[in-house]
Specification:
Structural class: mainly alpha
Shape: flat
Number of helices: 2
Largest sheet: none
Number of strands: 0
Strand content: under 5%
Distance between the termini: 37 Å
Amino acid sequence: MSPLERQAADALRRARRLPIGPDRNDLRQLAMGLLWLHRHGMDALVERRSVIREGRSLDTSEPA
């Protein structure tokens, strides 16, 4: 397992121990973000941020 996958698994384990609520949701969102980053890589994260900053659509079928 990669370091990002290990961190995500740890965050999910910690979230399971918490009662339902915002703290649990935050840990689950952190884990999902780490898994997304692991799967798509840093290049995709940088591209996504630049798209959002420029106000372009994330839909690649739409002309820029």
